[in-house]
């Protein structure tokens, strides 16, 4: 059911019974009018798949925005249905009329964050998330205790006791999401191209990616270099603001965005390469985020145009580095097949339209056997910090995704987003079907170096 | 007629586009049909009765939530329902309808809400019974060639479940990725392939129905052709006025051994139409045969770059399927006939991907029209196939006379036209002119012995056209059928018939009883 959030305190709009939206960037009426109410977006919407309710469908949410513009108040239920949206953008893919729901929900969320008084525990949780996640250094501090706890098996004991879950389902979700942490592996500030230099690329190292999946960043830099890129990973770079922007924290997101633009402008690069789908899509949206900022509007437009996903830039340049089998070879020298399922991260497939490039790159690896995951267009439930804020639907979607991944019979699951990786790994473990996971960059890195996938 | 709002910029225009011109008044009238009994209860009473029978969260009363159900695929009409029930079991439907019957409160069934005639338009003082949570596929059997499904199951999901067994569900409305089986049954929906395989009515074996007094009954049997009246025939296409379907047993059709799609470009629609008639006259029943005119091609090219023959004034899309030998023969015939009719270009697609590429232009046509016009009306009418040429010519005359562009995309094989009337609601008077042209097209269909709807239903939108097509006697006879199921007039009132009457009330104009009643053929219930 849609009424899943833990709420205490008295939530509501500051200044009750006002129309839902004020005049500062409300959901655009022109974009709303593009929706012809045909319903073609319903079947791929994860919340509609879960609950079968109009108000938890894209069409319903757009309708709620419309009633809000017509003067309906920002009621608790209305906010609940906006909050329940994963921002997966499956609806953008399936809409034949080209409705820009991505823009609409971003505008709506910013209004909700500014105008709606959330319950006290909800506020506290959001505050905790946003003082932690966008700051790699703070995340790093957390790594020590987590690693220790994992090594001692303490977190399992904690999970078994379900104490955390009883205290707060959200905190429990955060705790159990922490992936098995490996040795820290830093990316150099400058990695020279191997052979002929074909491009100078800046690399976003990210927050969660950098602190929790450092192996992915290292692999990304190596593959880029092997494919002829001079890789610049500015040391001072901060968060791209994706989590903030996608949660309606507009000003915070804008602040992060401006800093990232400054950093990479100073670095003088041809492209800015991102290996995390959520970050990439947010950076391609800077053009909208900063459109009202006279000092940055033009720079944001130029910057967004230079942002590339990792698989996008490799496909665009055309891969040149020789590939080797990643599963070894048999006695005859034939590559041992590695049955692999590729999971489209929503912010890569739906938000950036990048589906074919990673598949093509993976298929070119000797021995790689790609399998398609049934219902691939439906979100795994990770969705930025959604799984922390809304653990129940996130878990249900994770379980569905795990069942579909398991149905492929794959030995390896490849995806290009840290959030999906944590979410799906956890769900597969829960289902008793753990499989190996890797980022596209790690597979290509292993293939170029002629080693097995980690 | 479907008024799709494009980019209305001022609120007044928006109101007139969204709510239609005079239809607004009719919607208002639906709140209380003429002659409604004074003893109608309230949704609050229904709400009370349902306490304990349905889960709390299955009954929506929150205004924001109710508002999301105020329209279906025809957003021109909006009425906020009094109450919404999200049924997740057939018993929930039965309990709700029983409560409605007890208090004589209207109810309206809703599946996925993709209807294009306002059939699922709610009643302000009534209950909307939503089937979208009733979505279990109970049985899919290749051996028995049938599927037993809940009403909220999506059309395409039936085919997806049957494909591994070598079968599919034949009715294929363009909305098949989202419309529900319940909605298909209620609208007797069909699609491009209905020429050969028939509409939904040809594929329903049995229905579990909650009648308007709340009784759960089963119509038909799992085996075809049960003795007695064809009640399934009456129920299919009844647009929710005879009760709510809670389970359907549908026929599955064997996947064809072979499929070929032909795309032929012609100078004009006349030639494409003549080729269509010749193909059918030759004895071939293609799986589908569709025509798009120049304006529709232009729109599709703008939207999906389908690469249709350059310079064509019309394209004909023919699909033949069946056993390989038969397909080869039919394909040769189709090609020959197209050439004889001066096709300027001919392409044949065998591979699924190539066929999909051809279909892409056709399937995107409706939505694509939005790219060449700010607003448009999707009309739906039928003419005898032999009158196609004449009707299309007359339509372009009307279009020229009135200065309103009309794009044509249609199921040529069965004469089902989908004229798209283009306009800009922002320009003074254009909305009215477009609505006028849209009405003239329907008159033209009737004149030629056709119908005011091929597959989108009458619903709220076309009720006012029914008297143009039928005499009062005809309409009264239909009402007798409705009254036999729904004496209190609570099942989707205000739809199909222009002036809802109550059973037992003397039919409108007549002084005295209905002719059928007078002659003792029928009784008033
Ligand atoms: C873009 C687009 C393209 C379309 N193309 C086609 C097409 O090619 N062919 C075609 O035929 N239609 C087409 N349609 C119209 C529509 O999709 C069909 O009429 C469809 O069958 C409606 O299904 P639904 O589940 O959305 O029903 P709804 O819109 O929810 O309801 C339609 C009617 O059925 C009644 N109803 C719903 N469920 C039940 C039930 N369980 N028991 C009794 N009555 C019920 C409702 O009261 C209403 O009168 C199209 C619509 C769109 C938006
Ligand atoms: S973004 Fe995803 S969850 Fe949100 S409405 Fe669209 S499809 Fe549904
Ligand atoms: S598919 Fe697009 S136009 Fe249709 S209801 Fe969804 S958002 Fe609106």
Which secondary structure elements does this structure contain, and how are they paired or packed?
The complex is a heterodimer of chains A (454) and B (525).
Chain A: E1 12-13, H1 29-33, H2 46-51, H3 58-69, H4 76-83, H5 90-94, H6 101-115, E2 116-117, H7 120-132, H8 136-152, H9 154-161, H10 163-167, H11 169-177, E3 190-191, E4 199-203, H12 208-212, H13 214-226, E5 229-232, H14 242-246, H15 250-267, E6 271-274, H16 277-284, H17 286-289, H18 297-306, E7 307-309, H19 310-317, E8 338-342, H20 346-352, H21 356-363, E9 368-371, H22 386-389, H23 391-407, E10 412-415, H24 418-430, E11 436-439, H25 440-449
Parallel strand pairs in A: 4-5, 4-6, 6-7, 8-9, 8-10, 10-11
Antiparallel strand pairs in A: 1-2, 3-5
Chain B: E1 2-4, H1 11-19, H2 23-30, H3 43-50, E2 59-60, H4 63-67, E3 83-86, H5 90-103, E4 107-110, E5 127-130, E6 137-141, E7 146-149, H6 155-162, E8 167-168, H7 181-187, H8 194-197, E9 204-210, E10 216-220, H9 231-235, E11 244-251, E12 253-254, E13 258-266, H10 269-281, E14 288-293, H11 294-304, E15 314-322, H12 324-340, E16 345-349, H13 352-369, E17 375-378, E18 381-382, H14 388-402, E19 406-411, E20 416-423, H15 430-447, H16 466-469, H17 472-485, H18 515-518
Parallel strand pairs in B: 3-5, 4-5
Antiparallel strand pairs in B: 1-17, 2-3, 6-7, 7-11, 8-12, 9-10, 9-11, 13-15, 13-16, 14-15, 14-19, 17-20, 18-20, 19-20
The structure holds flavin-adenine dinucleotide and iron/sulfur cluster (2 copies).
């Amino acid at each position: 059911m849609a009424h899943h959030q833990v709420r205490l305190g008295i939530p509501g709009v500051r200044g009750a019974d006002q129309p839902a939206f004020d005049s500062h960037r409300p959901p655009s009426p022109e974009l709303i009018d593009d929706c012809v109410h045909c319903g073609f977006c319903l079947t791929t919407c994860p919340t509609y798949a879960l609950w079968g309710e109009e108000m938890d469908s894209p069409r319903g949410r757009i309708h709620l925005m419309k009633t809000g513009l017509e003067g309906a108040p920002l009621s608790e239920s209305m906010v609940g249905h906006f909050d329940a949206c994963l921002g997966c953008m499956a609806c953008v893919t399936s809409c034949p009329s080209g409705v820009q729901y991505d823009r609409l929900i971003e505008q709506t969320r910013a209004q909700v964050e500014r105008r709606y008084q959330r319950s006290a525990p909800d506020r506290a949780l959001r505050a905790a998330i946003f003082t932690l996640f966008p700051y790699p250094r703070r995340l790093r501090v957390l790594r020590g205790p987590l690693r220790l706890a994992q090594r001692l098996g303490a977190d399992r004991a904690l999970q078994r006791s379900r104490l955390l879950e009883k205290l707060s389902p959200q905190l429990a979700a955060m705790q159990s999401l922490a992936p098995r942490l490996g040795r820290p592996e830093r990316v150099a500030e400058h990695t020279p191209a191997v052979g002929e230099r074909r491009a100078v690329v800046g690399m976003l190292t990210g927050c969660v990616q950098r602190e929790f999946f450092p192996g992915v960043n290292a692999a990304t830099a190596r593959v880029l270099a092997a494919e002829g890129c001079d890789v610049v990973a500015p040391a001072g770079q901060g968060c791209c603001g994706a989590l903030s922007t996608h949660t309606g924290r507009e000003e915070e997101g804008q602040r992060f965005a401006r800093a990232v633009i400054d950093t990479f402008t100073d670095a003088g690069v041809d492209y800015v390469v991102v290996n995390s789908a959520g970050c990439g899509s947010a950076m391609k949206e800077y053009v909208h985020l900063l459109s009202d900022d006279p000092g940055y509007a033009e720079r944001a437009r130029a910057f967004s145009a230079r942002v590339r996903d990792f698989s996008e830039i490799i496909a665009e340049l055309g891969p040149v580095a020789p590939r080797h089998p990643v599963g070894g070879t048999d006695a005859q020298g034939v590559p041992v097949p590695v049955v692999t399922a590729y999971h489209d991260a929503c912010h890569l497939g739906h938000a950036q339209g990048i589906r074919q490039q990673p598949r093509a790159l993976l298929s070119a690896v000797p021995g790689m056997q790609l399998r398609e995951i049934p219902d691939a267009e439906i979100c795994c439930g990770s969705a930025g910090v959604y799984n922390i804020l809304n653990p129940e639907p996130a878990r249900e979607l994770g379980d569905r995704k795990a069942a579909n991944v398991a149905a492929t019979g794959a030995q390896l699951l490849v995806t290009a987003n840290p959030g999906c990786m944590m979410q799906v790994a956890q769900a597969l473990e829960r289902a008793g079907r753990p499989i190996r996971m890797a980022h596209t960059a790690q597979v290509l890195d292993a293939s170029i170096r002629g080693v097995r996938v980690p | 007629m479907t008024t799709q709002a494009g980019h209305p910029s001022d609120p007044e225009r928006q109101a007139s586009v969204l709510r239609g011109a005079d239809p607004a008044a009719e919607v208002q009238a639906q709140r209380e049909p003429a002659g409604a009994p004074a003893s109608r209860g309230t949704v609050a009473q229904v709400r009370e009765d349902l306490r304990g029978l349905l889960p709390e969260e299955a009954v929506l009363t929150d205004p924001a939530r109710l508002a999301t159900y105020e329209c279906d695929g025809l957003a021109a009409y909006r009425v906020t329902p009094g109450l919404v029930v999200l049924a997740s079991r057939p018993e929930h439907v039965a309990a709700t309808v029983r409560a409605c019957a007890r208090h004589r409160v209207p109810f309206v069934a809703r599946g996925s809400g993709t209807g294009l005639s306002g059939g699922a338009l709610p009643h302000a003082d009534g209950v909307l019974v939503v089937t979208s949570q009733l979505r279990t596929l109970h049985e899919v059997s290749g051996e028995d060639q049938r599927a037993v499904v809940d009403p909220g199951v999506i059309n395409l999901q039936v085919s997806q479940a049957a494909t591994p067994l070598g079968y599919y569900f034949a009715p294929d409305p363009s909305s098949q990725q989202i419309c529900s089986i319940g909605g298909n049954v209620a609208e007797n929906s069909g699609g491009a392939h209905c020429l050969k395989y028939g509409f939904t009515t040809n594929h329903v074996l049995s229905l579990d129905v909650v009648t308007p007094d709340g009784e759960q009954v089963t119509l038909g049997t799992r085996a075809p052709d049960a003795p007695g009246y064809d009640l399934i025939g009456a129920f299919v296409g009844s647009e929710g006025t005879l009760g709510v379907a809670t389970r359907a047993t549908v026929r599955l059709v064997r996947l064809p051994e072979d499929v070929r799609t032909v795309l032929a470009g012609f100078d004009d629609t006349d030639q494409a139409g003549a080729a269509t008639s010749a193909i059918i006259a030759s004895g071939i029943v293609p799986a589908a045969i569709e025509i798009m005119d120049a304006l529709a091609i232009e729109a599709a090219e703008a939207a999906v770059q389908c690469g249709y023959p350059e310079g064509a004034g019309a394209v004909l899309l023919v699909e033949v399927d069946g056993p390989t030998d038969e397909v080869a023969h039919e394909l040769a015939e189709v090609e020959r006939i197209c050439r004889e009719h001066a096709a300027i270009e001919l392409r044949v697609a065998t591979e699924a991907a190539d066929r999909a590429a051809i279909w892409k232009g056709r399937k995107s046509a409706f939505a694509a029209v939005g790219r060449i016009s700010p607003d448009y009306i999707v009309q739906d009418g039928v003419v005898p196939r032999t009158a196609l040429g004449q009707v299309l010519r007359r339509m372009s005359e009307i279009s020229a006379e009135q200065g309103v562009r009309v794009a044509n995309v249609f199921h040529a094989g069965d004469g089902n036209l989908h004229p798209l009337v283009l306009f800009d609601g922002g320009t003074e008077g254009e909305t009215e002119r477009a609505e006028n042209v849209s009405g003239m097209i329907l008159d033209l269909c009737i004149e030629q012995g056709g119908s005011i709807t091929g597959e989108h239903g009458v619903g709220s939108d076309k009720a006012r056209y029914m008297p143009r097509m039928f005499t009062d006697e005809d309409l009264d006879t239909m009402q007798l059928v409705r009254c036999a199921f729904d004496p209190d007039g609570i099942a989707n009132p205000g739809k199909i018939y222009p002036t809802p009457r109550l059973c037992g009330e003397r039919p409108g104009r007549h002084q005295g009883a209905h002719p059928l009643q007078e002659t003792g053929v029928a009784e008033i219930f």
